[in-house]
Amino acid sequence: MAAWKELVLGTKGEFSQVADGFADIELRIGDPTYFFRGQSNADWGLVPALSRIVNDVNYEDQLIIEKLGTVDFQQRAHLWLPQGMMSNDNENWRWLESWTLMQHHGAPTRMLDWTRSLFVALYFAVRENQDIDGAIWVAGGLTPFATVPNVHEEEKRFFTIDEPANTTIAATKLSRLSERMIAQQAWCTVADRLDVDHADALLATLDDEQRREQQQAVEGDSETTATLMKLIIPAEMKAHHLCMLRGMNITAASLFPGIDGIGASIRDAALIRTYSSSI
Fold first, then answer.
1. How many CB atoms lie within 10 A of CB 44?
2. If we measure between CA atoms, which residue out of 223, 199, 193, 230 comes closest to residue 1?
3. Mind listing the pLDDT tens digit for each residue in 151-192?
4. SS3 169
5. Of 152, 178, 230, 264, which is most buried with the most CB atoms under 10 A?
6. Is the dihedral of CA 121, 155, 108, 184 positive or negative?
7. How far apart are CA 169 and CA 234, in angstroms?
8. What does each C-alpha distance from 117 to 31, 132, 185, 278 come to in angstroms?
9. What share of the chain is helix, strand, coil (3-state, %, to 5)?
10. What are the tens digits of pLDDT across the range 252-269?
C-alpha cells in the first residue's frame, strides 16, 4: 500500500533544493500544482480539530454537534465579518462557505487549512514548538471543490450517516476572500466524512499510476516525484527559517493583517533574538 514520502530537510541547501524543484514544476505548468500545510510538530497527523473533539461520540451525534455549531456561527458571525463575506440569501449560504470562514476564525471544523505557498507553510511549521521537529505536508493532484460537478448535490453527502464506499476529499476556498486568506494563499481540504483522517483520504484518491509512482518514490527512486510528501523540518533549523522568512516579509504581521498579526510578529522577533543570544 502506498504511503506518504518523507524527506528530512536538515540543511539550508536541502530546503532550497526542494523549493527550487517545486518552482520548476510550477514554471513548466504555469499554475500552482501543490498544496502545502505546515505543522509545528512533525508527529501530528492530518485529523481536523472538530474530528478530534467529537471522536468519542457516535457518528450521528458528531453530525448534530457540527450542525449546531455551524448554525450558531451563521447567526452571529455577520456582526463582525466585512459586508459581502456572507450571503444574504440563506439558500445560497452553503455549508462549505460557513466551514471555510469558521476555520479561518478559529472554530473547529471538519476542514484543514492549506496554502499554495511552500514558504507560508514553512512559517507555520517553524513558528512554534522550537524544540520539536516540524513538518510541511505536500499534496498534489487535489481536485478544487469548485470544479466538482453539481457542488450543491455533493454537499448532501456531508450529512450521510452511512459510510460511503469511497471517501471524497477536495480542496475549496471562498468565492470572496478576506485579506488574511489572500495573504496566506489559503485553501482548505474537506472530506465527505467528518471522522476521516485527511492523510488516509488523500492516499485513497491516488489512481493506479499515481499509486505506483508514489510507492516508487517512497522506496527511494530519485527520478520519481511523489504526489504526497511530508517534509521534516528539524528543530535546530526552525530559528534559521524564521529569520529567513522575515527577510522575505513572510511574518505574522503580513500573514495576519491587523493588530493580532503585529502582536504575533513581536513574539517571533523575540524568538529570533533569543536564538541569536544563545549562539
1. 13
2. 199
3. 455 566 677 766 665 678 888 887 778 888 999 999 999 988
4. strand
5. 230
6. positive
7. 30
8. 12, 22, 7, 31
9. 50, 15, 35
10. 999 999 898 899 999 888
Helical spans, DSSP H, in the chain:
12-29, 49-53, 59-76, 95-104, 118-126, 151-155, 179-184, 198-204, 208-218, 238-247, 252-255, 259-277
Handedness of CA 48, 50, 56, 61 (dihedral sign): negative
Residue 218 contacts residue 2 (beta carbons within 8 Å) = yes
Cell numbers of 153, please? 448535490
- Partners of 228 in beta bridges: 139
Total-model pTM: 0.89
Q: Compute the Cα dihedral for 50, 52, 54, 58 and give only its sign.
A: positive
Q: Specify which residues 114 forms β-bridges with.
A: 187
Q: Which three cell numbers stand for residue 7?
A: 524527506
**One-letter amino acid of 108:** P
